[in-house]
Amino acid sequence: MASVVKLIAGSYEQIAFGYNVQTNENVWTVKADFTHHAHAASLSVVAASEKFAVTGSKDETIQVYDMKKKLEHGVLQHHNGSITCLEFYASYLISGGEDGLMCVWSIKKWECLKSIKAHKGQVTSLSVHPSGKLALSVGTDKTLRTWNLMTGRSAFIKNIKQNAHIVRWSPDGSKYVVVINNQLDLYDLETALVTKTLTNPKRISSVKFLNNKILVVAGDDEIVRLCDVDKQEWMCEFKAHETRVKAVESFKMDDHCVIVTASNDGFIKMWKLRLNEELKCPTLLGEVNTTARLTCLAVWKPQSVKPIKEEETTEAPTSSKEDVQKLLKTKKVRIAPEEVVLEDESRPKNKKRKVGGTLQEAK
Length: 363
Fold this sequence. Notes:
Helices cover 2% and strands 53% of the residues. It is mainly beta.
């Protein structure tokens, strides 16, 4: 059997779990790879790149793991408050926290290149545009903000009247979704306006674009729903777990997509969905019981990240949605090193502590 991916999950019990997914034509198996107890509080978010995985916690730290060497690579300390969101893009990691900061880290030297006071309240979610030039963030100040990642400054601010907790770009970057409680707002990039609002029966906990058309939505119940964002309607739903679904991820195989779900019931499950045929509810491929209360999920797949060239850029616009369109038309991207943009100059400098430990092999 060939190993396809690793599944990484975080839990209330402060433990990160790693599993190898192995498959042949007919049988999928999930085998324990590692467990790691590196945090002093529950895990809130996990993310993975081609080489690294990172976990964020309510203990205010980000743990870094070298997935190829199976080593704990170190810890990042800059936020004053819980880590709420993490996302890789090319050779960068972007983090958001309860302190309202959004930080850009270089994964070459693990230095904080930029520290942006993104929201007056906490940063609840962020999403990087596929071009790497823009990022969206939402927070508890009832705003949706567009960021010019080349300057680390705000490009556009939209007052949304409520506190959103999830924002996600579509794979082609032409649209994005903003989640407020159980409300799913679909936005068009060209107009920056809501084109449709869909309502989920329960508060939405996680969303994932499978492609530019299909969005997976999980909420505070056992049901996972599929949304057609082009038709702007719900397509189908299926019972995924016995209790509420906390996180949903996906990865692609040759002829189908695999949806991965994690729940408070301790199970991680994989579901097979064919996107090129008439959309039907997915079928269960395999599952594993972690026996923990899961909070977050990521998929690690080697060579899944395409690097971008670090080159000089044209002068970046900063103030309107028209400027956002101009920014996306520029062809060169560079994130300048050692630049910190802070409203509060009293915040601590970034710290990095190398830890030479190894990940504990699961039995």
